[in-house]
Structures are given as structure tokens and as C-alpha cells.
């Protein structure tokens, strides 16, 4: 009788063991910092440092010569997560309609992509070719190509995708993909461009992170100081009347780099100074240039 009881407990454990062995490799995987994986901190050709949303933030200004890509498996060695969050803080050239991120399969199929501008497009195609082009999510009425900073969070879960812009606008669209969708990680991931396409990203980007699960997208607003940009712009006006009372030895606070940041390179542009950050404004309909 005791032996049967032990057998019964063993049979109960079998489904649990099988279930654990079936857990995807990406389950519990850490967030993927796409900018760091594509060597943005080392300032490759076409990339320079710029001011971010907040005074202490460092962003990257991307111009047309930039060619930034890497093997997808290098970023996602355990496979691409089924449900995920994509978080970014970005400011594009006014009027731009261009991709921010594109993921290609080994056969050159565009499996995942974000296209900024008017409208905002989210592209997704799993191993079965779903969803078909007519069912691809389009977020009309939203334009991120206005020359202003925007925080964007994308949450992909099940059969839907939710877009959250500046923590104020939340829109959900159907995403009729397979029940067990897969994205091929034997291809390449490209920033700001598509293969055989002339449209490229031009502007500033501060963050681009992909996180397994959708919780990060919904919690991102609680972790960001969304009002810092407005406070930064208003600060000189409020302090203008107190400048005469400031001690000559007192200096304004310096911008600091984030930890683990690689050394600043010499700015190759005329008049550039080592350690300086690009000014805030983006010139309309021109390639971003330094001051």
C-alpha cells in the first residue's frame, strides 16, 4: 500500500517536471538594452551624444550615415519572447516617416518593426506569416514626428498590442498572430533602417529596451519623471531675477554621464569640444547637426 502511495505521488510530479522542462529559454530573461548592444555608447559613425529629456540624461543623435545592426541571436540567445514590452524615448526630425527598429529572419522576412511618423505602425509576422498585411496594427491619429521628445511603451500580449505614448494616450489594436508565435533569431536586427529602403531614422534617442512580459510597459510611467523637460525649460526664466545675487564662484550644475559610460570621443565637427552635448533643437527637414 505504501509503495502505491509513492507511485501515486510520482505520477503527480511527472506533469510538473514536464511543464518545467517546456518553459521557453527566454522566460525570466533580463531586459535587452538595444542601444548598448548596437554599440551606441562607443559612438559609431553617424552617432554622437546629445542632451536627453532631463538635464542629467544622455541621448544619442543619429544622422543618415549611421548603419547600426547586429545578429539577432546576439541580443536574444534564448529566443525572442512571445509576450514582451518595448520601451523607448525618442525625438525624430519633424515630418519624418521612418523605421525605428526592424528584425529580419534568416530568409530576409521582416518579422518585427516600429515605424514612426504619421501614422505609427507596428509590424509583426510570426513563423506562419500571421498576421497578414491587412491585419497589421496601425495607430492612426498619432504622430511622433513632431520634433518633440516622446516616451513610448509597446506591450505585446496574446492577440493584441497596446501603445502607450507619454503616459497620456493608450490605444490597443488586435494582433491576430498564431497561438504559439515564433520569431526567427538567426537573422539580423537593424536600427533606424530597412533593407533596400531609403527612409532612415534621423533624430535623438535616449532609450530602447525590450523586456520579456508586458508588465514593464505598464509600469514604465511610474518610473519616469515626465515633467523634467518642462521644468528644465522653465528654470532659466524663474531664476533670471536671482542671477545678480549668485556668488561669482558658484557654478551651475554640470551634466553627468550615466555609470558604465564609455569615454567621450573628440567631436569631429568644426567647433566641437570634447565632452560637450549636442543642443536640444532639431532643425526641421535637415540632418541633425551640432551647434
TrEMBL record:
<dbReference type="InterPro" id="IPR001791">
    <property type="entry name" value="Laminin_G"/>
</dbReference>
<keyword id="KW-0176">Collagen</keyword>
<dbReference type="InterPro" id="IPR048287">
    <property type="entry name" value="TSPN-like_N"/>
</dbReference>
<dbReference type="Pfam" id="PF02210">
    <property type="entry name" value="Laminin_G_2"/>
</dbReference>
<protein>
    <submittedName>
        <fullName>Collagen alpha-2(XI) chain isoform X9</fullName>
    </submittedName>
</protein>
<keyword id="KW-0732">Signal</keyword>
<feature type="domain" description="Thrombospondin-like N-terminal">
    <location>
        <begin position="31"/>
        <end position="214"/>
    </location>
</feature>
<feature type="compositionally biased region" description="Polar residues">
    <location>
        <begin position="258"/>
        <end position="267"/>
    </location>
</feature>
<dbReference type="InterPro" id="IPR013320">
    <property type="entry name" value="ConA-like_dom_sf"/>
</dbReference>
<feature type="domain" description="Laminin G">
    <location>
        <begin position="82"/>
        <end position="213"/>
    </location>
</feature>
<feature type="region of interest" description="Disordered">
    <location>
        <begin position="233"/>
        <end position="291"/>
    </location>
</feature>
<feature type="signal peptide">
    <location>
        <begin position="1"/>
        <end position="27"/>
    </location>
</feature>
<keyword id="KW-0677">Repeat</keyword>
<dbReference type="GO" id="GO:0005581">
    <property type="term" value="C:collagen trimer"/>
</dbReference>
Amino acid at each position: 500500500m505504501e509503495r502505491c502511495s509513492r507511485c501515486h505521488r510520482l505520477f503527480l510530479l511527472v506533469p510538473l517536471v514536464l511543464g518545467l522542462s517546456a518553459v521557453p529559454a527566454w522566460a525570466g530573461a533580463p531586459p535587452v538594452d538595444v542601444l548598448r548592444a548596437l554599440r551606441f555608447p562607443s559612438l559609431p559613425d553617424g552617432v554622437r551624444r546629445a542632451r536627453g529629456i532631463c538635464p542629467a540624461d544622455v541621448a544619442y543623435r543619429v544622422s543618415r550615415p549611421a548603419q547600426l545592426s547586429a545578429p539577432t541571436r546576439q541580443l536574444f540567445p534564448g529566443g525572442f519572447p512571445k509576450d514582451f514590452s518595448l520601451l523607448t524615448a525618442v525625438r525624430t526630425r519633424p515630418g519624418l516617416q521612418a523605421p525605428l527598429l526592424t528584425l529580419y529572419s534568416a530568409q530576409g522576412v521582416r518579422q518585427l518593426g516600429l515605424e514612426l511618423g504619421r501614422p505609427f505602425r507596428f509590424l509583426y509576422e510570426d513563423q506562419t506569416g500571421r498576421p497578414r498585411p491587412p491585419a497589421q496594427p496601425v495607430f492612426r491619429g498619432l504622430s511622433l514626428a513632431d520634433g518633440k521628445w516622446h516616451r513610448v511603451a509597446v506591450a505585446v500580449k496574446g492577440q493584441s498590442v497596446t501603445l502607450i505614448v507619454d503616459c497620456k494616450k493608450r490605444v490597443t489594436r488586435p494582433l491576430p498572430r498564431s497561438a504559439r508565435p515564433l520569431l526567427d533569431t538567426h537573422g539580423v536586427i537593424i536600427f533606424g533602417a530597412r533593407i533596400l529602403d531609403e527612409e532612415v531614422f534621423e533624430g535623438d534617442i535616449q532609450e530602447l529596451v525590450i523586456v520579456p512580459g508586458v508588465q514593464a510597459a505598464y509600469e514604465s510611467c511610474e518610473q519616469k519623471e515626465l515633467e523634467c523637460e518642462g521644468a528644465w525649460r522653465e528654470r532659466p526664466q524663474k531664476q533670471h531675477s536671482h542671477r545678480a545675487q549668485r556668488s561669482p564662484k558658484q557654478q551651475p550644475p554640470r551634466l553627468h554621464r550615466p555609470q558604465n559610460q564609455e569615454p567621450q570621443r573628440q567631436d569631429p565637427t568644426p567647433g566641437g569640444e570634447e565632452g560637450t552635448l549636442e543642443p536640444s533643437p532639431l532643425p526641421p527637414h535637415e540632418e541633425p547637426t551640432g551647434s
